[in-house]
Amino acid sequence: MKKALSIFCAAVMCTGILAGCGNTGATAETTPAAPAESVQAGTDAADSAAADTNESAAADTAGSTAAGGVFKIGGTAPLTGAAAIYGNAVKNGAQIAVDEINAEGGAIQFELKYEDDENDPEKAVSAYNALKDWGIQLSLGSVTTKPCEAISTEHFADRIFALTPSASSTAVTDG
To answer: What order do you get walking across the sheet with 70-77 strand by strand?
Structure first.
């Protein structure tokens, strides 16, 4: 009896998962469009609110990414030393992604630059500052935890969005 109940429960859960992941049958053609006036009004309100709060930040990056610009992404990683296998893997993966996105075309092209932090917190700060001088608009952070902790306060102070592929300390997100 327990075996039959277990099989039944597993089947019900699988059905629920499949139903939740399934296609609803609706397509973009059958979905009614929102009235243009209400969409425009909402967009105008959001635009003016965003403009008030982000005017200085937008001024820094708008010129470089507007119509045909380049969006600069930088990262620090141990490209040499004992942890170089991790840093080079992340760098190569990011470069493949940038190359694929740029190959698709589009108004904005992405440029990627990595600096070697040698898995050293002090060198990570120097590497981050070199990327900041280059003009990064997004930081891929550092691959390892201690260097990422060292540059997380820099990211926060400079208001540059940062993410890390593998640093695991909660201090990385403290700001």
So the answer is: 109-116, 70-77, 138-142, 161-162
